[in-house]
Amino acid sequence: AFEGLAERLQATFDKMKGRGKVSEADVKEMMREVRLALLEADVNFKVVKKFVNDVKERAVGQEVMKSLTPGQQVIKVVNEELTKLMGEEQSKIALAQKPPTVVMMVGLQGAGKTTTTGKLANFLRKKNNRKPLMAAADIYRPAAIDQLETLGKQLSMPVFSLGDQVNPVDIATGAVNQAKEEHHDYVLIDTAGRLHVDEDLMGELQRIKEAVQPDEILLVVDAMTGQDAVNVAESFNEQLDLTGIVLTKLDGDTRGGAALSVKAVTGTPIKFAGMGEKIDQLEPFHPERMASRILGMGDVLSLIEKAQTNVDEERAKELEKKMRTAELTFDDFLEQLEQVRNMGPLDELLAMIPGANKKALKNVQVDESQIGRVEAIVRSMTSHEKQQPSVINASRKRRIAKGSGTSIQDVNRLLKQFEDMKKMMKQMTNMQGKKKGKGGFQ
Ligand code: GDP
Ligand code: MG
Question: What EC number(s) does its UniProt record assign (predicted)?
């Protein structure tokens, strides 16, 4: 998403960056371009108007900061205002005082409710160590129940269902009761959608709301629908009093207008963003990071957070200690490989690094098969060999190569790399030792 908008804004700013002085006329000219870029990205026109005025007012009247050029100052203001537009701070999912926290997923057909229900269950378990129960309350769409049950199986997480002959209100109530009995801390209710907002649908959703008193009503909207997403959000909000929005399909080539307007128009915070069809492609929505992304400032924070979810801190400390004493074994090595794997496809991670050029990245084929080969070699070692690689002699190498379907050269290369790595760590450790008291590398 946002490529078009990002490109235009960055081009506009690039023109200003080099200049020592920026006149009021320059600012006006720049804001004219920003305005056009936003409108073209399908941002609501009222939102654009207010945005441009706010920036102009601040940028023109602002005192000059020494560390920034006037061009950078304007970019800073645009960045701050973009952030504000999308909600200022990250807005977290509710947690009820008394469990279970009841979450109702609502939205039009095809917006991504069912998918997001699975993604959210996965997120809550992985990130917050929760035990959610999913509930299948869409009895109309053919195979909607199957779809949720399949997600449940894939995640090994429970799905509450009473088939498609029972009233959705009773299904929702039944799910909440079961969650209480089985001590689930969240209930995620997947509801039915329609092609358009209609009275029937709203009536049913209101009855479910009445019956289960949800702590959170999340509207799932398809970001690809642009302006329509904003209208949909407005009507759902009027009828149901939403507590949050999930924008899906932000991975597609949406022009970004929905993300930039929906909070401003409805006053409802965007809590999550769907970034793909896969189960782990749901991210907490960070207005600040999104703004930086649009303005091309990279997304270091997202990268760090992604790494943190997957690396167990205790283990990381232990590993660090091993590295310091250079006791690293192939068992540790394997574990590290796994953790890198869990972070997701490597090219996706690379794309988040600031300055990483998307077009250039397309030509970089991250060689996942190489990692697979390394893993196979390590797995073909005995535990003695993994702990003490120095025992690996020629006949052991032959056996390992055969067991992993690789060649002796491959095995040699890995052993060499491993030794180099240990050496390098030792050097780093020594350096760190000398730097002690000054905070070392941190
Ligand atoms: P529902 O009718 O609201 O329950 O929508 P579904 O969950 O069945 O999703 C409709 C389609 O959108 C499915 O093909 C999903 O895989 C797809 N989808 C959902 N979220 C995303 C997303 O964040 N990105 C992409 N690319 N596709 C998504
Ligand atoms: Mg569905």
Answer: 3.6.5.4
Cis peptide before 214 (omega within 30 of 0): no
Q: Is residue 111 marked as binding?
A: yes
The reply, when asked if residue 190 is annotated as ligand binding, is yes
Residue 108 assigned to a binding site: yes
Name all domains of the chain by residue range, CATH numbers in brackets: 3-85 (1.20.120.140), 101-297 (3.40.50.300), 306-433 (1.10.260.30)
pLDDT confidence of residue 22: 65
Three-class DSSP category at 98: coil
Whether the CB-CB separation of 351 and 300 falls below 8 Å is answered with no
Q: What is the predicted pLDDT for the residue at 106?
A: 97
User: What is the CA 102 to chain-centroid distance, rounded?
Assistant: 23
Counting ligand 1 atoms within 8 A of each CB, the residue from 108, 113, 115, 221 with the most, and so the one to mutate, is: 115
Query: Ligand 1: residues within 6 Å at CB?
Result: 107, 109-115, 193, 220, 248-249, 251-252, 274-277
Per the listing, tokens 């992604």 go with 306
What digits encode the pLDDT tens for the residues 319-351? Answer: 666 666 666 788 877 776 666 666 555 555 555
209 alpha carbon to ligand 1 midpoint, in Å? 23
Task: Give the mutation target among 277, 280, 285 for probing the ligand 1 site: most ligand atoms within 8 A of CB.
Answer: 277
Rg (CA), the chain: 26
> What integer is the mean pLDDT of 226-244?
93
pLDDT in the model for residue 440: 30
Ligand nearest to the CA of 1: 1
Give the span between the Cα atoms of 88 and 77, in whole angstroms.
13
What is the signed CA dihedral for 344, 348, 349, 354, rounded to 10 degrees? -160
Exposed/middle/buried for 172, CB within 10 Å: 0-12, 13-18, 19+? buried
- Cα four-point dihedral sign 94, 98, 100, 105: negative
**Which atom from ligand 1 is nearest to the alpha carbon of 274?**
23
Q: Which residue of 104, 189, 194, 248 sits with most ligand 1 atoms within 8 Å of its CB, as the best mutation to test the pocket? A: 248
Q: How far apart are CA 190 and CA 53, in angstroms?
A: 41
Distance of alpha carbon 195 from alpha carbon 216, whole angstroms: 23
**Its pTM surpasses 0.80:** no
Reported as a pLDDT band with limits 50, 70 and 90, residue 14 is confident
Going by C-alpha positions, the residue among 258, 356, 237 that lies closest to residue 303 is 356
Between 184-198, 331-345, 350-364, the lowest mean confidence (pLDDT) is in 350-364
